[in-house]
Amino acid sequence: QSALTQPASVSGSPGQSITISCTGTSSDVGGHNYVSWYQHHPGKAPKLMIYEVSNRPSGVSNRFSGSKSGNTASLTISGLQAEDEADYYCSSYIVTTLGVFGTGTKVTVL
Amino acid sequence: QVQLQESGPGLVKPSQTLSLTCTVSGGSITSGDYYWSWIRQPPGKGLEWIGFNFYSGRTYYNPSLKSRVIISVDTSKNQFSLKLSSVTAADTAVFYCARGVEKWYGMDVWGQGTTVTVSS
């Protein structure tokens, strides 16, 4: 299985919006709505930010939103804050092994 | 609320078997709504699925690791475990256990992670 493709890094100034893409194939991202996004601060446990493409778990800020078009899912962070600086990973259901991660994106707040 | 905690040796010799345990607290491992997962992150690299175990007995493993991995559930201890055999330095990583939600195939609860180094 190949990892989903994400940009290595995305940056933005406080208050700005940024979008992270996650590109797969019709066998994973494009084949269903089981796409999740995780925030990972180094040394800490990854945190679920989005599930089923666009749903936010309880407690996650509404500055985080998800969407999907074809084989590409996206995570948008609005009103960027210093605490958003972290690594972000997408993941998708895939019928053969149930899951595949994206390559990861480092978000830098300038 | 459910919490997960990994435990096991931090150092394993090459060619030996890496064994880790994840203890589930605040909930039952026998819930049919969830599955139990291991994920790892090698130094400087991204997250990588190792595999999952459903309480029903179904298991799914990363094809690249399948020949060396076993994930099992111990309901009496509310724990699940990972065994990775014939390890090499390439298996050095932070290992995370996580709870997967079967309804939408994502991980909603994660352990803090444990570092395992493969070295003689």
Layout of secondary structure:
The complex is a heterodimer of chains A (110) and B (120).
Chain A: E1 9-12, E2 18-23, E3 35-40, E4 47-50, E5 64-69, E6 72-77, E7 86-92, E8 100-101, E9 105-109
Parallel strand pairs in A: 1-9
Antiparallel strand pairs in A: 2-6, 3-4, 3-7, 5-6, 7-8, 7-9
Chain B: E1 3-7, E2 11-12, E3 18-25, E4 34-41, E5 48-54, E6 59-61, E7 69-74, E8 79-84, E9 93-101, E10 106-110, E11 114-118
Could you explain how this protein is built, in words?
The complex is a heterodimer of chains A (about 110) and B (about 120). Chain A is mainly beta and about 110 residues long. Helix content of chain A is about 0%, strand content about 40%. In chain A, strands 1, 3, 4, 7, 8 and 9 form a six-stranded mixed beta sheet that branches. A three-stranded antiparallel beta sheet of chain A has the order 2-6-5, with no helix packed on it. In chain A, a hairpin with a 6-residue loop joins strand 3 (about 35-40) and strand 4. The radius of gyration of chain A is 13 Å and the shape is globular. The mean pLDDT of chain A is about 95. Chain B has about 120 residues and is an all-beta fold. Chain B has strands at about 5, 10, 20-25, 35-40, 50-55, 60, 70-75, 80-85, 95-100, 105-110, 115-120. In chain B, a hairpin with a 4-residue loop joins strand 9 (about 95-100) and strand 10. Chain B is globular. The termini of chain B are far apart. The mean pLDDT of chain B is about 95. Classes of the chains: A mainly beta (about 110), B mainly beta (about 120). The interface between A and B is medium-sized, with 28 and 26 residues.
